[in-house]
Amino acid sequence: MEHRKVIIIGSGPAGLTAALYAARADLQPLVFEGEQPGGQLTITTEVENFPGFPEGVMGPKLMDDMRKQAQRFGAESLFEYVDKIDFGDRPFRLWVGEKEWTCDVVIIATGASARLLGLESEAKYMGFGVSACATCDGFFFKDLEVAVVGGGDTAMEEAIFLTKFASKVTIIHHRDELRASHIMQRRAKSNPKIEFRLNSVVEEVLGTEENGRKKVTGLRLKDTKTGEISEMKVDGLFIGIGHKPNTDLFKGVIEMDEKGYIITKAKSTETNLDGVFACGDVQDSKYRQAITAAGSGCMAAIDAEHYLQTFED
Length: 313
Fold this sequence. Notes:
By secondary structure, the chain is α/β, with parallel strands linked by helices. Helices cover 25% and strands 29% of the residues. It has 7 helices and 19 strands. The strands form 5 sheets. Strands 1, 2, 5, 6, 7, 8 and 19 form a 7-stranded mixed β-sheet that branches. Strands 10-17-11-12-13 form a 5-stranded parallel β-sheet, with helices on one face. It is elongated, with a radius of gyration of 21 Å.
């Protein structure tokens, strides 16, 4: 059994920024990064909206640099998953396999995962024309044709945003009716750049690979009523079927909303449990940006430091 003042569960911009600030406060944080260190940015090819990088930066490099910066001040990273927790007594207890850790403070930064279609071709072109974030990647599709999969508010919001850049946006939905709210449907249907392909599902993402550079060229669609297969030319595909917060480990322990996002107190990162803080996409269903996640990671570390000062007095 090993004890740490601060354990951070999850990485990405939130967890690694929390690690940086906690390390600079001499709290020697331990970060459990899981097997996808760096979170969703590790599947993002180029990040152009993170301040300080006028030429853009590759997502994995940004996360690697954040990690190195935190480690420079004493943070430690383990690429392992926390399997079990016990927040009922102090110190808090966590298990990775058979190994047990204890700590005074936990910062949860497990993020949220985009719901994906589960296609092999979708994974192949992720970051090369396939995206789950219009606000992150829409700029790359200026004057190009794109498609958005989904029928809810998320898909409508993504499609409307993409019309700022794309010449044409096609919304693909597997039913003959959309699930989105009436106001979002009205906005999408009244936009001259948006078209609809209902009763359709994406069977395959089509593309090319030249000189090691992958590129989306179209989609193979299946009509859900007739079974007919057709092809559609697009330069990009956006998955707009929502996100799932990675909070299964904390169910029944930490207070969450109806979608599973952790609820934090106003103007803080405090959860309903003293000494447990949450930051990043795991508690933010609205913005979901690298910069907002990093900001809340900073907040969580400062909140944790103030809590420990009180806790130790």
